[in-house]
Design goal:
By secondary structure, the protein is of the alpha+beta class. Helix content is 42%, strand content 20%.
Length: 259
Amino acid sequence: MAPRQSLVPGPVDRRAVLKIAATAQEAATLPASPDYIVLPGMSVPRRLLLGVILIAGSVLGVWVITVGAWDDEGFFPWFWNVLWLIFPWVFLLPAWFGYFAGWKRYADSRRFIDHYSAFRQESVRVPGTVAETLAMTAESNDAVSALVVKVHYEWPPGQPSDVVVASRAPGIRRPEAPEKGDPAFVWIERDAGYSTSGAPASSAKARKLVQISRAVRKEQAADGQKPGLAQELEALAALHRNGELSNEEFAAAKARLLS
């Protein structure tokens, strides 16, 4: 595992989804289908089969290690049975924790997919800026195995906020990973940003989608140079000219880069 570039930016928002887009234009728009955002996971039948295999493995492991080594005659010291009672669970508990974590990720993905149509129609887009990142890479290459990103934005308008979002196997290499200062776009459930009376309210419990372009990192990897402020401003200006950013969104994103 490559050394971490920073500490984890903060508690991950489990209601938020992270997508690394190919271009700045793609990052500023919502895809028509959630399949482009949430990767298909293991099917329910396969998950159930994995559970059956874990149960069988647990029973076999406990029988062979604990029951097979149990001292009924008191030949060994008193802690012998305690040791063999605990030993198999050193390996079994992480496997079971991973199994249930997989079900949790599957449930979160299904909730996002099931509500995506309404989310796409009703969410509000807020420009933001990458504040911190943590990219973990595989031992054999520079493929990013896990990515955690902290994005700063303002929602409701004038109220600074942050969201920490994570992605497993985001499908990028280390030079393409977001860096501090990169522009980002945050889609937030509109109803969660306002109270029933119409007054601004907290968006802490809102579903969020964070999209960040990897184009800047790809250009950096190609020419070996870190893009400057001018290139990032030009990318935002192009989005503004194409109508992807409103005047207010462009002004807010530009102010973040210049601050």
